[in-house]
UniProtKB/TrEMBL annotation:
Organism: [Clostridium] innocuum 2959
Gene Ontology BP terms: DNA replication
Keywords for the protein's UniProt record, in alphabetical order: DNA-binding
One Pfam short name: SSB
Protein name per the record: Single-stranded DNA-binding protein
Molecular function per GO: single-stranded DNA binding
SUPFAM superfamilies, alphabetized: Nucleic acid-binding proteins (SSF50249)
Amino acid sequence: MLNEVNLVGRISNVPRISRTKANVSVITCNVANQRSENYVDFIQCVFFDQEYLEKRLKKGMKILVKGRLQQNTYTDADTGTTIYYHEVVGKVLELIGKINTEDVSKKKTDKSEVVKDINDTTIERERY
């Protein structure tokens, strides 16, 4: 079965760094991926045993993540309910841009300069 994820976006939080009991580094961050002009998905990504990333990843960096989708569970301490969630387990991370420090509310975009490569399938999926 194929389980491959390629994701481009900006790191939307300060990456959390921890270690497993076996002293393997674990870096967790959320990546803001702009699905369309009006929708942004925040996707949790985790990287194991990649110490070189610990001091390099910063909030706002544009990155490319290649990895796999994984489902995890935990039990809510208050209700005892099992909670299911998904995350991308990153195998490859590429820095593809600088930190975005520009205030988005002040940013102006000339709509005539924006060109999108879309097809009918893309339009149909974005409606839902």
